[in-house]
Every structure is written in C-alpha cells, then in structure tokens.
Amino acid sequence: MSNSRAADAPARAPKSKPGSTRRLHLPQKMRNVELFLLLVACGINAAAVVLVQLGALGHIDTTLVVLGAGLSGLVLCLHIVLRFVARDADPFILPIATLLNGIGIAMIYRIDIANGDAGWDSAAVRQTVWSGLAIACAITVMLVIRNHRVLFRYTYVSGFVAVILLLLPLVPGLGREVSGARVWIGIGSFATFQPGEIAKIALAIFFAGYLVRNRDSLSMVGRKVLWMKFPRLRDLGPILVLWALSMSVIIFQRDLGTALLYFGLFLVMLYIATGRLSWVLLGMTLFIGGAIIASQTLDYVHGRFQNWLDALNPDVYGADGGSYQLVQGLFGLAKGGLLGTGLGQGRPEITPVPQSDYIIASLGEELGLAGLFAILALYLLFVARGFRIGFAGHDDFGKLLGVGLSFVVALQCFIVIGGVTRVIPLTGLTTPFLAAGGSSLVANWIIVALLLRLSDTVRNQPRLVV
Amino acid sequence: MNVSELTLLVLRLGFLLVLWLFIFGIVYALRSDLFGQRVRKQPKDGAPAVASAGLAAAFPSAMPAAAPVMQPAPAFVQPPPASAAAPTEQLSAQAAKIDLGPGDKATAQNATRLVITSGPKAGTEFPLTVESVTIGRSADSSLVIRDDYTSTHHARLMLWNDKWMIQDLDSTNGTFLAGIRLAVPTPVPLNTTVKIGATSFELRR
C-alpha cells in the first residue's frame, strides 16, 4: 500500500511543476517594479503641486498636500490589492495612470489658484475626491472580476446597458445640457455625470463578445472587387446599426466626439476580429459621408467645421461660439514654446474651460513642447501596453477586449488633442486621466482595472520555462 | 519666502528632466519587449547531437544536403525547405507524410500532457487544458524556450474541432513535426516529436 503511494508521488510531482517553478523564479518581481515606479510617480505628482505653488503663490502651503497624500495612499492600496489578487498583472499601467492623474490634478489646482477658487469650489479638490472614488471603483472591479471571461457571458447585457446609458441624457428631467451638448445627467443641482464615458466600456465588452460569436460570417464570405474582398450586402447590418447609432448621437445629443469615439471603436474591433481592410474603408466612407452631410445641415456641426478651417479669420474669432477658445489655446501653446513658462507661471486661465477640454493647451503652455511630448509618450506607453496584453492573450475574447479598451483611450486622446491642436474639428471629449471630470476618471480607472485583470490572466496560465 | 527666478528655472527644467527619466525608466524596463528576451547560451559540451540538429535547423537553406543526414528521425526524409518544388506540391506532400504518422491524432480527450523529450529540461511535463499553448522566447508564452534558435513568438498549439493543431507563427528557424518543417497548421499525432530550436516535445496520454 505504502509502496504504491510512494510510486505515485514522483509521477504526480512533475505535474505541479509549472506553477511552482514560476513562484520560485519570480518572487513578485513585477509588483516590485510597479512599487518602485509608483513611488517615483507619486513623487513627481507631489513635485508638480509644489512647483505650482512656488510659481503661482511664491510659497508652499499644505492645503492640497493632505489630499494628494490621500490619493497616493489609495493608489498604493490598489498596488497591495494587486499583490494578492493579480500578482502577474502588468507593472507599468498603474504608475502611468497615476502620473497622468496627478499631473492633471496639479494643473487643475493651478487654474484654481488663478481663478481664486478654494474649498469645495476648487475643481482640484473635487478632482482629487473623484480620483479617490475612481480608484476605489478600480479596486472593486479587481476584487469582483477574477477572470475576464466572466464578462463574455454578459455580452448582450452590456450592449443593453450601453444603449440605456446613451439614452439617459435624453430623458427629460434627468438630462442636462452643457454648452450645447446633451450628454450629461444630473441628480439635484450638483452631482452631474456623463454616462457616455461608462458606456464606452460596456460597448467594448459588447463588441468583443459579439464579434467573437459572429465574426465568421463577417470575415469569410464576400465578393472580390479590385484587390479587396468586400462583405455581402446582408452582412452590413451591424455596421449600419452602429452608423445609425453614432449619427443619432450627433443629431440628438449634439456631440460629434462621442459619435466618432463609438464608431471608431467598433471599426477597429471589427478590423481586428476579421482582418479585413474593406470594413475600415467602408466604415470611414460612411462616417465621413455622414459628418459632411451633418456639417451641411446641422448648425453646430457647421460652426465646428468653420472654426476649424478658418480659425484665424477675425469674423469667426469674434463670433459667439466662434474660434476664440481654439485660437487662445493655440496662443497658449505658442507662448509655451520648447520648455514652457514653468508650472504656475503662465496664463492658461485666459482660455475658456482650461481645466477640462483645454487642459492639454494649459499643460502645453506651462510645460512646453518637451512636457507635452512627455505626456503623449505616457499615453503611447499606456496604449502600447494594452495592445501588448491583447496580443499576448490566449482567448479571442480577451484579445479583442484588451485591444478595444486600450484603443478607446488612444482614440479619445487623438480626438481631444487633435481638436485642441487644430488637426481635426474640435469636439468636446475629456482627455483621459488629465481633464477635470468625475465620470471620465471613473471610466478610465475601470479600464485600468480591466487591463490589469486581463494581463494577469494572460500571464497566469500554466507556464514552463525551458 | 520668496523664490528667485533662477531657482524656479532650475526647478522647472529639473521637473521636465524627471518626467522624461520616468518615461525612459519604463522603456528600459520594457526592453525585453522591444528587443526580445535575452538568449541563454547552450553549454558547448552538453548534447552535441542536439546542438548540431539545432544548427541544421538554424541554417536550413545553407546546407540542404547535410540536413537529411542530421535528422534524428530517419523514417522521414526531409525535403530541403528551400527546394525548387512548387509550394502547393510541397504542402500536399507534407500533409500526406504527416497523415502516415504513427498513432492517433491528439484530441482534447486523449492528450493530457506535453512532455519535453530533448533539450535542457528533458523529462519535464506540462499539463494540457482546453487553452491554447503559445511557445516562444517571450516571457508571456505558456512554454518559454530560451535558446538561440527560438523566435519570440514561435508556434502555437491549439484545439481546432477538438484536435490539437500546431501552427508555426512565421518563426525564423521553423517548427518541425516528425522532422518535417511546418507550413500550415497541422494536426499533431500522439507520441510524435515536435521540434522547436534545440527542444523537442511530444503530446502524450
């Protein structure tokens, strides 16, 4: 009896080996790298606030230090949670998000000083509190979703949730109209929220699940025209539905940027799922056609196009809703030059809404081209990590979800920063992590949590190193 | 407390510098992603047969005449990969030869483990689940093979219609199933050698 058990033991031992070798070789190496980068990021954030105070006030006071320390503490909490529930998660995503969030808070604080806001009027204080809430949401997501494949079950539920969230601002009494766009909901007089930001996550989950289930008919059949294979007419259903959805966002919610974001997300995920360039061409033709028709028929879209194409014309500059904001942003960027005026020493408050839509112009003025490129490099690294996670994924749903979530951040950056720098018409979207706005922060930190979860599942497969 | 212009200038430039140092720090930590994993050198005296076969795999077109001689499995004579034969002919010939392979095809039911049969970790086992197994030098592969002949993302074992298939991911030195270089995803028979770099493995019950 004991003999056979002894014979069993060596046979069983190698089976458990892949797991145990990993533990032996990598004692939380990823998490230690993350902790180091996180401490550096918190240090840079603190330095940014101190520099703002030195530049704008001429002395250091402790108002925001307490809140900033609270934020650093919460980020470290998330790090500790990762040590227990996702030890193989990507070590770079969290420090990058922390740094972007912190630089954003410093810049918003700088605008507050210029406007003389303090206490609960101060956007920086609210932003810090929202950051705390967003990181708490991220921790909850990490603890609740232990494997991203759970989300695959809720494909159609999340599609439904996304549609509901998109429709919420149109509900009378609940929806709020802010500078023309009807994308906000408000309860009472203060708590306003932009449900479209959360909807982008729900949409990414829905697209990933839907495309994994149905991509065969979208990728296999079709007629070849010239060198490209075009889909059959009857397979055009999904793309037309999405096109109609984004066009209705343009018409009813009067928000060009959100429409572009959703449609672009769908196109890219469709391209990745099917590998067909014809979908991208088809989709871009549809959207550009729709946008041109909208610019002819809808006044506000026409205004946006005119501000973009003819920004420096004095008539357009002086008009109500004209290009004043855009041109002031460009002047700010020009004033910043190569190295910037220094934190707290520029005049970013001249531009309307310098802390949300135009935070990139404010940062460009005070940190200069060098600082702005550093911020863009941070976004690049963040998105590259997301693509990398998608690439390394073992299941198709995870791959699509990883690429979709990181692409949505990239596209949003492009739409906002492209708008501010006059590459594309200006649309009202938030710069991820930087801009003042609670809903955007919550959504982006949930994206961080989902990417961390995905990267942990990818690396947490049984592994063997030869 | 008033701060002089000079201090502010130094602090301002210092801040930008630290920001960029942070970015380069991340890029430095990412270097294995950008330039590939560090290669572990094979011991010179250990397993000369393995090393020479690995060499043959490393330069298949450079010595087409020598390749068949060095193949460990004499049952199959490997056509030189860079031969003048039309690619379609080669593919059908390859499929036919692998169909003759010994034993059943490995399916989700009958294959439970992947056993390393040669190379530095010969004898090690790896459990098979329903997940696909990625093989390569990158740290995020399921089966990480760190030698000179393995590409970063080399090959992939996956279940297609319940059968284990192996797909070469356009690797530099190729994936060999029973001595034949793979061109298309191919079903893997049980107990048949799959060779990647200097490592070979089999799927077993």
Automatic annotation (TrEMBL), chain A:
Membrane topology per record: Multi-pass membrane protein
One Pfam family named in its UniProt record: FTSW_RODA_SPOVE
Alphabetized UniProt keyword annotations: Cell shape, Membrane, Transmembrane, Transmembrane helix
Protein name listed in UniProt: FtsW/RodA/SpoVE family cell cycle protein
Cellular location(s): Membrane
Residue spans crossing the bilayer: 35-58, 64-85, 92-111, 123-144, 151-171, 183-212, 233-252, 258-274, 279-298, 367-388, 400-421, 433-454
Top-level division of the source organism's lineage: Bacteria
Keyword Translocase among UniProt keywords: no
Region (Disordered): 1-24
Organism: Cryobacterium algoricola
TrEMBL record, chain B:
Record field: transmembrane: 6-30
Keywords per UniProt: Membrane, Phosphoprotein, Transmembrane, Transmembrane helix
Record-given protein name: FHA domain-containing protein
Taxonomic classification: Bacteria, Bacillati, Actinomycetota, Actinomycetes, Micrococcales
Domain FHA intervals: 133-182
Domain of life: Bacteria
Keyword hit for Transmembrane: yes
Pfam families: Yop-YscD_cpl (PF16697)
